[in-house]
Amino acid sequence: MTTFTTPADILPTYEREAADFQAVRNKSLFEKSNLDRMLGITPRNVAQRRLLDLGCGPGAPIATYLTDRGLAVTGVDGAATMVELFAATLPNARAIHADMRTLDLGESFDAILAWNSFFHLDQDAQRAMFPIFAAHAAPNAALMFTSGTSDGEVWGHAVKEQVYHSSLAPDEYRALLIANGFKVISFRAEDPNCQGHSIWLARFTGG
């Protein structure tokens, strides 16, 4: 009988797999066109735009690219070894060991990114993230995250270990975004130009 991992296994798994994940992570920056779309709607509320990278991992290639584009990146990850690798990759960036589900930094950002991290949360935890996104969003902030394409749970792999994923239905994501002060800019389901990732882009319009 197959034994499935749970959301509670995610952080311990990435803790164990951090170094191997960094070694095998695709660094071709296939995400670039979508990151550029996010940057295109990221406001210039301060001299240097600030980005919150939730589930930042080891920092390459995404946070490295965004830093090179001039953003001040704050990386947050619940796996301590990932935070250590992020800090080593980007010594001038800020790295924080924290669980995104309880994050309360008391500050706002011009862009919030949760790339291939948010979808490891269970469905109720995903629903609870939208007020956290809003609490950390500066006026007109950009929000980008990846999700599934339909309501349900699936299992994949992080290097050698099984990992949990879940998704809400697209209509529920839209409703949650709107209810928490975000305007949906686009949803690209299984984008063929981004290795099949499903990507949400929204702008914070709430107070």
Provide structural commentary.
By secondary structure, the protein is of the alpha/beta class. It has one domain: Rossmann fold. The protein has helices at residues 10-24, 32-41, 62-68, 80-89, 123-135, 170-179; strands spanning 50-54, 72-77, 94-97, 109-114, 137-147, 152-158, 161-167, 182-191, 197-204. The strands form two sheets. A seven-stranded mixed beta sheet has the order 3-2-1-4-5-9-8, sandwiched between helices. A hairpin with a 5-residue loop joins strand 8 (182-191) and strand 9 (197-204). The radius of gyration is 16 Å and the shape is globular.
Give a brief outline of the structure:
The protein is of the alpha/beta class and 207 residues long.
Labels describing this entry:
single chain; 207 residues; alpha/beta; 7-stranded mixed β-sheet; two-stranded antiparallel sheet; 31% strand
